[in-house]
Each structure stands twice: as C-alpha cells, then as structure tokens.
Design brief:
alpha+beta, 3-stranded antiparallel β-sheet, elongated, 351 residues, 14 helices
Length: 351
C-alpha cells in the first residue's frame, strides 16, 4: 500500500469532526486557516464560529469597520493578521466581485496570503495539486525521511517542499493535505509521539535511527526583548481615556491607555511623576492606586505592565489630541489587547 493510501486510511479512521471540513467555501477555509495559524484547534473553534456568525460572507467582512474585526480577533495576537484579513476581504469584494481566485498563483497575490494558506485554499476548495507545508507536515516529513536541515532555513524549506511534492496524492490533493496535517496534529506530535501505533513505523527513518525527539531541526530562536509598560488608567465620573495605537509594532489599530514605555524597570514613583509630566495631567488628578505587575509574553517580547489608576474630578480639558474620552460602558465595544482585558477583568482598580 502506498504512503498516500495508508495515510488516507488512517485519516478516515481518526480525523476530527471540524466545521471547516464540511465546506469547500474558500471564504470559510481561508478564515479557518488564518485563525489556526494563531492558536490550537480547541481554542480557535470559538473564534471561527464567531467570525462566521458576525461576518457570514467575505462581503460582510469587507463591509465591517476595522474596530469590529479587531474586537472579534481580540485575544488571538498578531493583530496584523486581522488587519490583513480585513484588507483582503475588501480586495476580494471590490476587485473580484466577492469571488476568491481558484488558482494558487492568483491566491498568492492577495494581501497576507502566503504559500501555506494559498495551497490550503487551492487544494481543499479547488482540488489543485499543490502541497501544504505547515508545522505539522514539516514534522511528519522530517521524521519520516530523516531530514536534518533546519526547517526554518532556506535550504531546509526547499528540501521539505520538494519532499512534499513527491508525496502528495495527485488524485485527491485536498484530502491528502488535510490528512497529513491531521496526522501531525494527532499522531506524529512534537513530544512523545505514539511510534508503536504509527502505520509508518517500518519506513520511518527517525524511528529506525532513534532520532524522533531530535527532528525536525530548527534554527536559533530570536531573542525575546523585555519591555516595561506603565499604563495610566485615567477616569472621571463616567468616562475613561483611551488611545488608539497607530504606530507600527505590536497591537497596531487597537486601543489601550496612555502609556509610558521603558526598556528597564524603574521605581513606580518615578514612573508616576514622569507620566504626570508627559501627559500634562492637572494638579487635581488623584492617584487611586497601582496594580500588581502583569506579565504578558508575546513571540518576540515579554511585557511587564503595571496600571496606575488616576481619577479626575472633572473632564480632562487639556488631554493630548490623540487621547479619546469615552463612556466606561462603551469600552467593551473597542478592540483592546488581551493585556488590557486582563486588567479590566481582574483588578479592583479598574472597577
């Protein structure tokens, strides 16, 4: 029995019942793939269902405000992907009559759609013979064929892609791609895979050479930078003051509070004094309290955040131009980073 036939037999027995597997609608497949690049299936399911409910078609997503899209994405991280999702929906709606391209080469012209996502849409929805190579597939092929080049190097990527092309089922490419991704997710897992129950045990180079735990090989990780955020949670009677992040970098397009950002930790008294001066807060402003430290870890950054709660007896008439006053009850309708959400949920100072 060929590798493909054996894999498809395994898939028929073990595949999970997932909503995006019951459709060949490229919009829904695209949504699922973008979301699952951010998180595991069990966590991504609720986001997928939310997006399909809020924006049933690509035209609905295109017509939405950016804040609506970012709010729906809240908690997934990498908000540039949400902005690309929105921009691509508008491109498809306005330039393509709401119809996705059917060929991978054309899908690659869409904003935020790369080799992996384009291959998934083209093969799942239109049965184009093109291999999907994600983390799960990379792990399966690296172990099965004993590939030792780092999978995040250019040479390693070329080798993986060539291997994927050799293995793909020419008759059922979409089904095959889903099967090998599922095999990596459920059977050939990163740590302690069930090699004894693997249908490819007899032909797996890594199993034969006892290198399963060593493959795939990855290059050096990017160093994680530390940053200290001192947020000023400023309120008056019914209002709270927020600021939209317009600069490039993390959380662009989301709203948070006026911020003092530092490369090193500093005494809270100094941070408060510097913040008062930077924001030109009135003398009538009162420091209500300072939160505990919140540690928020991103892929390339570790943020140590503290929130300084400040109350004003009246409107902040000299607030910076980029600071917006809103009713406290309306804050939930704005897209905010998960870090801000955690503070609002758990800290008594935010109540």
């Amino acid at each position: 029995m060929s590798f493909s036939a054996k894999l498809l037999k395994w898939y028929d027995l073990h595949k999970r019942d997932l909503p995006w597997r019951h459709t060949v609608d490229p919009y829904k497949v695209w949504l699922s793939e973008i979301i699952l690049q951010q998180t595991r299936v069990d966590q991504g399911m609720s986001y997928y269902l939310k997006f399909v409910s809020l924006f049933p078609t690509v035209n609905d997503l295109a017509a939405a405000d950016e804040d609506q899209v970012l709010k729906a994405w809240q908690g997934l991280g990498y908000y540039s992907r949400a902005r690309n999702l929105h921009a691509t929906a508008r491109q498809i709606a306005t330039e393509m009559g709401g119809q996705f391209p059917e060929k991978q080469a054309d899908l690659l012209q869409l904003k935020g759609v790369g080799q992996y996502t384009s291959a998934a849409i083209a093969s799942f929805c239109f049965n184009e013979v093109t291999p999907v190579v994600d983390g799960n597939v990379s792990r399966v092929l690296s172990r099965l064929h004993g590939l030792t080049e780092p999978i995040d190097s250019q040479a390693g990527k070329r080798t993986l892609y060539e291997c994927a092309w050799q293995c793909i089922d020419r008759e059922q490419p979409g089904l095959y791609n889903q099967a090998i991704m599922e095999f990596g997710a459920l059977q050939c897992v990163p740590v302690n895979p069930d090699c004894q129950g693997c249908p490819f045990k007899s032909q797996c180079v890594a199993y034969a050479s006892d290198t399963v735990k060593d493959l795939p090989v990855k290059g050096k990780k990017t160093a994680v930078k530390k940053r200290w955020f001192y947020y000023f949670y400023i309120t008056d009677n019914n209002g709270v003051y927020i600021k939209k992040r317009t600069q490039s970098g993390i959380w662009k397009g989301l709203h948070d509070f006026p911020l003092l950002e530092k490369e090193n930790s500093q005494p809270i008294e100094e941070a408060v004094a510097e913040g008062f001066q930077l924001l030109r807060l009135p003398k009538s402003a009162v420091v209500k309290g300072v939160s505990e430290e919140y540690v928020h870890v991103l892929s390339h950054r570790k943020i140590h955040a503290r929130f300084i709660a400040i109350t004003l007896p009246s409107l902040w008439s000299k607030a910076p131009k980029d600071v917006l006053r809103i009713d406290k009850k309306d804050l939930a309708s704005f897209g905010i980073p998960r870090l801000i959400d955690k503070f609002l949920e758990s800290d008594i100072l935010a109540q």
